[in-house]
Design a protein that fits this description.
The protein has 238 residues and is mainly alpha-helical. It folds into two domains: 151 residues, no CATH class; 58 residues, no CATH class. It is 51% helix and 8% strand. It has a three-stranded antiparallel beta sheet with strand order 3-7-4. It has a two-stranded parallel sheet with strand order 1-2. A hairpin with a 2-residue loop joins β5 and β6. It starts with a helix and ends in an 8-residue tail after the last strand. The relative contact order is 0.10.
């Protein structure tokens, strides 16, 4: 989820993400519920839909799907949802870290609304507000799941980078102190950008592997605005 290549290509944002907590250890037979009527109704409706002839050109057999419109109030609900999601993607917003997925949330809501509408009535002329409201609720759930998973993946990536930097400092860096420019210029490849280097240094500082030096401390013959003393015996980052 935190892989920028997968996100930026638009591949992952096309999926509805969900990773529910594991139920292992709680799957007791006494808690098993089976609604045979609901299952039969679901199977029957699905069978009816699959048995319905698809709209095709009689000569070319090319699919000719009809346009499913939106009722006026349904469109208003979708527009309001799209605007709210757009606002949340701004710098500092709670969806700024998943703009690729968030940008497609309104489209996903519209698709879900179409499915809900046609499940009930294949000949429905337009999406009603009740279906659009339900679709927006579902889209919001999947968006929150994508946000949670992306945040967790991002933390994992930052920890991995910090561990890579920790090993480099202990095994390849021979000075007692380190500057951020040392990491950017000479450190591991993933830290050759200032934001990534600063984030990794911050994680190591938080976990006791680095101690910040007072501004103006002389390091290698010059006063430094920012530098860290390397601690050799701290606990592991991960």
């Amino acid at each position: 989820m935190a892989d920028p290549m997968a996100a930026d290509t638009g591949f992952l944002p096309r999926f509805l993400m969900c990773e529910p907590p594991s139920t292992i250890g709680t799957r007791m037979q006494a808690n098993t519920r089976c609604d045979d009527m609901a299952m039969a109704n679901f199977a029957g409706r699905l069978r009816d839909i699959l048995a319905t002839a698809m709209p095709t050109d009689p000569e070319t057999r090319e699919l000719q799907p009809r346009v499913l419109g939106l009722a006026l109030q349904s469109r208003a609900l979708l527009v309001a949802f799209a605007d709210a999601i757009e606002t949340a993607q701004a710098l500092g917003g709670n969806l700024a870290h998943i703009t690729g997925t968030a940008s497609k949330a309104a489209e996903q809501a519209a698709r879900i609304a179409g499915v809900l509408t046609l499940w009930r009535d294949l000949n429905a002329p337009e999406v009603q507000p009740c279906d659009m409201a339900d679709a927006i609720t579902l889209a919001q759930f999947y968006l929150s799941e994508a946000s949670r998973l992306a945040s967790a993946a991002l933390v994992s990536v930052e920890i991995d980078r910090a561990e890579t930097l920790r090993k480099w400092l202990l095994e390849s860096w021979h000075e007692p102190d380190v500057l951020m420019r040392d990491v950017v210029r000479l450190g591991p490849n993933p830290m050759r950008e200032s934001p990534k280097a600063r984030a990794a240094l911050g994680v190591l500082e938080k976990h006791g592997w680095l101690v910040p030096l007072d501004p103006g401390t002389v390091v290698r013959g010059a006063a430094r605005a920012e530098a860290w003393r390397i601690v050799k015996g701290a606990g592991h980052v991960v």
